[in-house]
Amino acid sequence: MTTEQQTTSPTLHEAQQLVDEWIRTYGVRYFSELTNLACLTEEVGELARVMSRKYGDQSFKAGENTDPAEEMADVLWVLLCLANQTGVDLGEAFRKSLEKKTRRDATRHLNNPKLQS
Q: What structural domains does the chain harbor?
């Protein structure tokens, strides 16, 4: 990784490459897709715990992680692993999803009275 890559946020494509390089260098191999799906579920649960304590009605326990960014990064890590394993280009998939949502919901939310202040 170059010094510039260390100080700037990677694109989704670069993030997928960085995860793949890390796995091949330090991780020996990817966990199976089903194991990574279970890991993703676990990481989402950890994010939910932080969010429910930080923004909801629960309080933190002593020594518990309070940083949602850390948990979001863990979710992204496993999602990047799954994308690499299944041949998904997340940048391209995200672009297509954004186009679909824009087409489908161009006025839906703007006209939703529940979202008006």
A: 3-90 (1.10.287.1080)
